[in-house]
Amino acid sequence: MANCILPQHENHTHPHSAECGHIRIVHGNHVDYLHDGHLHHPHGDHMDEHSLDITESNPDECTPGHQCDSHQQEHTHGPECGHEMVPHGEHIDYLVDGHLHHPHGDHCDDHGPVTLA
Q1: Which of 20, 30, 51, 100 is deepest in the core (most CB within 10 A)?
Q2: Which residues make Cβ contacts (< 8 Å) with residue 56, sequence separation at least 6?
Q3: Compositional bias of type Basic and acidic residues: which residue ranges (predicted)?
């Protein structure tokens, strides 16, 4: 196995590519593949586990005034809600129409846009 300091997804045999069907997210200078709540980055003979960085465009802030027209205000994000889970910093966000939602109390925080490849 390649020498790598990043966490690796063990026993991952699916070959990610532009044609594999998984959502492709631009992450820095490369593309990651969103797969079962993980961001996978092919690296040699294994898959690195990535998380989107906390940045100015993808902050980790409370935005109680965020109004999203992409789902009802009563919608609750969770593993079975229909939105893809995206690792962001040390938490999980949900991909909703190209931006990150983070459930927070009685509202969703807007953690910014993502660029799909």
Answers
A1: 100
A2: none
A3: 68-80
